[in-house]
Amino acid sequence: MTQRRIAFLASQAPAAQEALATLTARHGQIRPDAADVVVALGGDGFMLQTLHETEGMDLPVYGMNCGTVGFLMNAYEVDGLPDRVAAAEETVINPLEMRAPTAEGREVRALAINEVSLLRAGPQAAKLAIHVDGKLRLSELVCDGALLCTPAGSTAYNYSAHGPILPIGSDVLALTAVAAFRPRRWRGALLPKTAVVRLDVIDPGKRPVMADADSRSVQNVISVEIRSEPKVRHRILFDPGHGLEERLIVEQFA
C-alpha cells in the first residue's frame, strides 16, 4: 500500500510545536495542496481552524490532541502514524451557513462546523423572534442568547447550555436557548437538517446582539439566517472504535 503524503499543521501551543518538529523530522513536510491527508496538531479549536482553512480541498483531516479537550482529536503518539492514518475511519460532516445583516447595512456570511450562536452584547437581555422555514414559531424569546448546532457541535457550547447531544448520523439540528428568561420553560427544539432558521433581533438599538460562527464574530446584527450547507463537506479521520458516534455515546454516560 502506498504511503499517503502528509501535511502537518500545528497550533502555536508549545506542545503542538514540539510535536510538529518531531513528526516532520520523521515524516517530512509538504503543503496541504500537495497532500493526501492533513494531520492537525492542537486542540479542538485548532481542528476547527484547520477544517475551515482546508475547505474546498476535499482532504481528510486526522487530528492529534496537543491541546486540552480534544473531542475532535485522536490521542497523540509519535510512533505508527502512517498505519493509524491508513486504518482510520472517516466521518463526513456538513457545516452551517450563517447570513447576518447588521445595523450598519452589511451582510456577513460565514460557515460554522459546530454552531452559530447569537449572544446579547449589552447589559440587557436579548429579545429574539424565531422563524423556521418562513413560519413564525416563537414571537419573543427573552434570553442571553440562542444557538443552532450540528450533531458534531452538539457536545460543545450547546451541551453547556443544556441542549441535547445529537447522534452524528442524524439529519437533525438542535436549537437551544442560552439562559432563557421568557418563556421560562422553553427547552429549545430539534429541527430537520433541511430547516432554514431565522432569528430576528427585537429592538437591536436598545438590546444589541452579536452573532458568532465558530468563533468568528459579527457585531450589531439585526437578524441571522442559518441553514445547513450540503455542498461543503469536511472529512474527519478517527482511530477505529473512537469515532464521533462512539464519543457522543460515551459523553452521555460520563
Features:
5 helices; 254 residues; six-stranded antiparallel sheet; alpha+beta; elongated
Descriptive report:
- The protein is built from five helices and 17 strands.
- Helix 1 (14-27) links the parallel strand 1 and strand 2.
- The two termini are 39 Å apart.
- The model has no long low-confidence stretch (mean pLDDT 93).
- It has a six-stranded antiparallel beta sheet with strand order 6-5-16-13-8-9, with no helix packed on it. The chain has a six-stranded antiparallel beta sheet with strand order 12-11-10-7-14-15, with no helix packed on it. A five-stranded mixed beta sheet has the order 1-2-3-17-4.
- It has 254 residues and is an alpha+beta fold.
- It is elongated and about 60 Å long.
Report the strand count.
17
Largest sheet: 6 strands, antiparallel
β content, as a range? 35-45%
Shape: elongated
What class do helices, strands and sheet pairing give?
alpha+beta
Count of discrete alpha- or pi-helical segments spanning 4 or more residues? 5
What's the assembly state of these chains?
single chain
Low-confidence stretches: none
Strand order of the largest sheet: 6-5-16-13-8-9
Q: Kindly state the mean pLDDT as a whole number?
A: 93
Whole-number radius of gyration?
19 Å
C-alpha termini separation = 39 Å
Helix content: 10-25%
N-to-C order of helices and strands: EHEHEHEEEEEEEHEEEEEEEH
